[in-house]
Amino acid sequence: MLRLLLAALSGLIFGLGLILAGLANPAKVLAFLDLAGLWDPSLILVMISAIGVSAVGYLWVRRRGRTLLGDPAQLPTARQIDRPLLLGAVLFGIGWGLTGICPGPAVVLLGSGASDALWFVAAMLAGMLLHDLWRRRA
Amino acid sequence: MSIDWPHFTPWSALMGGLLIGLAAAMLLLSLGRIAGISGIIAGLLLPQRGEWPWRLAFTASLLMSPVLWQLHSPLPVITLGTSKAMLLIAGLLVGVGTRMGSGCTSGHAVCGLSRLSPRSLAATLTFMAAGFLTAFLLRHLL
């Protein structure tokens, strides 16, 4: 129960952070991605403070070797920089550049009542499912 | 390049980032999991044993965050100036791309870079470059 509450609290704080940072507004993200236009550098500051705080949490967990609830931390183990990683990043970057929407803000947009976000989220879920089903078969 | 000073919002950007970082640190410290939104959501689609509840709790409260925000103050302006067809295409690309590339802006750029993961750095540089290039093509060449 405590785990579920903490997971819910993380999701909530994450979403409030996205809204405060302006990331729930695709126009603001596109203004950051459009280097050649009128450039809004705000997103860089979002990244810097997010990475800074997250790094403290990571270092803490790494020093303890487990979580505060006593579980082992489940950190990614993959190391190789391979073709799926880079090709996937290219596909994701194109989708992001077309709309200014990435997965977290997509969910927040949906919750904010922006009904058009449903098209994006439905296609995103379909894409995820297609990829994972295809990889499960392979 | 010219900076759009009137729309530059340094303080809300820094504070928003702080909350995002706090949420990622909290999930790692409490559940030992990486706050990669694409991974958390994808795990809801093809669930494994014991994985569903925390992912659902996280995603549901992410979805509800704008509702809670609105109890306190109006949401900031949201401009979604993209056609439905474009939203569908982009959503599909983001869905397939984040799964193939094992992460998105949260998992690779925030969590990965804070762990100094070379793999996440490569992914972040790649999707940023693709994003910059796509925005450039769309706004200045087409």
Automatic annotation (TrEMBL), chain A:
It comes from the Bacteria. Keywords: Membrane, Transmembrane, Transmembrane helix. The chain crosses the membrane at residues 41-61, 85-111, 117-134. InterPro entries: DUF6691. This is YeeE/YedE family protein.
Automatic annotation (TrEMBL), chain B:
It is a multi-pass membrane protein. GO terms for cellular component: plasma membrane. InterPro entries: Sulf_transp_TsuA/YedE. Its main location: membrane. It is found in: Cell inner membrane. It comes from the Bacteria. Signal peptide: none annotated. The chain crosses the membrane at residues 12-31, 52-71, 77-98, 119-138. Keywords: Cell inner membrane, Cell membrane, Membrane, Transmembrane, Transmembrane helix, Transport. Belongs to the TsuA/YedE (TC 9.B.102) family. This is YeeE/YedE family protein. It comes from Leeia aquatica.
